[in-house]
Amino acid sequence: MKYTIIAAFIILTSLAANAQTAPATGTVNTVVFVNSDSLINNYEYYKAVKFKLQDLSQRAQAEITAKGTAFQKEVATYQKSAASLSLVQRTATEKRLAAKQQALQALSQNTGKQLQDEEAEQNTKLYDRITAYLKTYTKTKGYKIVLTYSKSNPSLLYGDESLDVTKEVLAGLNEEYKKETAPVK
């Protein structure tokens, strides 16, 4: 955190020095920033990915809940009839139920890991999409650095509103996504 503040201070100091030495007319700011909170919350691709992940999570939870309920019913049935079963039958049933319980726990753990892996993969894709777009965007606009601002992780303490390109970047990203998802005619 200390290094982030120092880095931000150095960047801001160099920006101030550049602003003082740069000619006042015809210059392009080479450093801009985007508000990552606004970008993520309003990026249609992110909304679609978030919906997909929530759907996967809900379906996985429903499957685990259904299997857990069925298992509990099996246990209850066994407990009701255990007194009438022979020792061999009770032992076999208890082993079978223990194996089912372990399988259910393994399913729950594996499903959780799969969901985490899918989320990590989607986050990587999101990052790659944004950075690929920014590479093109910065070349066309003449920017050299795009910083990010977020209230939850404020590595950028202050940025003049004229340097905030969030709306432009968001519009461009959403336009690209819209083209990708448009039905083929």
UniProtKB/TrEMBL annotation:
- GO CC field: cytosol
Q: Which domain of life is it from?
A: Bacteria
Q: Which Pfam families match?
A: OmpH
Q: Which GO terms describe its molecular function?
A: unfolded protein binding
GO terms under biological process = protein stabilization
Which segment of the chain is annotated as a signal peptide? 1-19
InterPro entries documented for this protein: Chaperone_Skp, Skp_dom_sf
What are the UniProt keywords, alphabetically? Signal
User: Family, per the entry?
Assistant: Belongs to the Skp family.
Protein name per its UniProtKB record: OmpH family outer membrane protein
Organism, by scientific name, is: Mucilaginibacter ginsenosidivorax
Write the lineage as a comma-separated list. Answer: Bacteria, Pseudomonadati, Bacteroidota, Sphingobacteriia, Sphingobacteriales
